[in-house]
Write a structure and sequence with these properties.
The chain is mostly helical. It is 36% helix and 0% strand. The relative contact order is 0.17.
Length: 75
């Protein structure tokens, strides 16, 4: 019996962290949660140009990651 928990210890071949451009649903409109978070981060970073309502999930994820890094909120 394995004691490995894939939720905590993903294998090196895990797909838990795909690049946004590799997402199957990456071209779908961003989610409401992404829109809310992106709006908040863009306001905190004083970069209102980073928020747009017509972007994809993948683009929203990239912008969120960039703003989090700029604000020092990286994991």
């Amino acid at each position: 019996m394995s004691t490995t928990n894939p939720k905590v210890d993903p294998s090196q071949h895990s797909n838990l962290e795909k690049k946004p451009e590799d997402w199957i649903t990456g071209d779908d409109p961003m989610t409401d949660a992404q829109a809310s978070y992106l709006k908040t981060l863009s306001e905190q970073a004083h970069k209102s140009d980073q928020f747009a309502t017509d972007i994809t999930k993948a683009e929203a994820s990239k912008r969120i990651d960039a703003l989090r890094a700029e604000l020092g909120l990286e994991d």
